[in-house]
Amino acid sequence: MKTNLTLPLDADLIREAKVLAAKQGTSVSRLLTDQLAALVRRDKGYERAKRRALTRMDHGFDLGWTPSVLRGELHERSANPAYGAGHGIARIGGYQPKASQSSPQKPPSNPPKIGKSSRKK
Fold first, then answer.
1. Which positions ≥6 away from 85 have C-beta within 8 Å?
2. pLDDT string in tens for the chain (121-residue length)
3. How far is CA 84 from CA 43, 68, 79, 88, 97, in A?
4. Element containing residue 77 per DSSP (H, E)
5. Under DSSP, is residue 32 helix (H, G, I), strand (E, B) or coil?
6. 3-state SS class at 54
7. CA 73 to CA 119: how far, in whole Å?
8. Cβ neighbours, 10 Å, residue 88
9. Does the reported pTM lie above 0.85?
């Protein structure tokens, strides 16, 4: 069912719309109808995509991942002196924290000389 719609529009806008419609070989009425239909389709598509995304977020994805170590095992390892107290989680992945240095490193006693005298001929 088609129904007419009356819109108050600026005279200059109507004139430019008539020129645009003529360039496209259609009427102003058809031009506006097509544009409004495109806007409605785009909005409906957005709403469908939004609902799909929210549904996926609610249900989640099964990526087939299973943890290699259970959380309880991590806590047991961190408390076990054989694994190093307090470092159980870091050590499981192969990461070894660097040992702290008690004193800063000393520069080399004989640093290499830079300049003309150190060049080989």
1. 78, 79
2. 889 989 999 999 999 999 999 999 999 999 999 999 999 999 999 999 999 999 888 887 777 777 777 777 777 766 666 655 544 444 455 555 555 555 556 655 666 666 665 555 5
3. 59, 20, 8, 6, 11
4. helix 71-79
5. helix
6. helix
7. 60
8. 19
9. no
DSSP assignment letter at 83: G
DSSP 89-109: HHHHTT--PPPPPSSPPPPPS
Question: Do 67 and 92 touch, CB atoms closer than 8 A?
Answer: no
Measured CA to CA, the distance from residue 101 to residue 50 in angstroms comes to 55
What distances in angstroms separate CA 99 from CA 88, 89, 96, 102, 103, one per listed residue?
16, 17, 9, 9, 12
Cβ proximity of 90 and 77 under 8 Å: no
- How far apart CA 119 and CA 121 sit, in angstroms, is 6
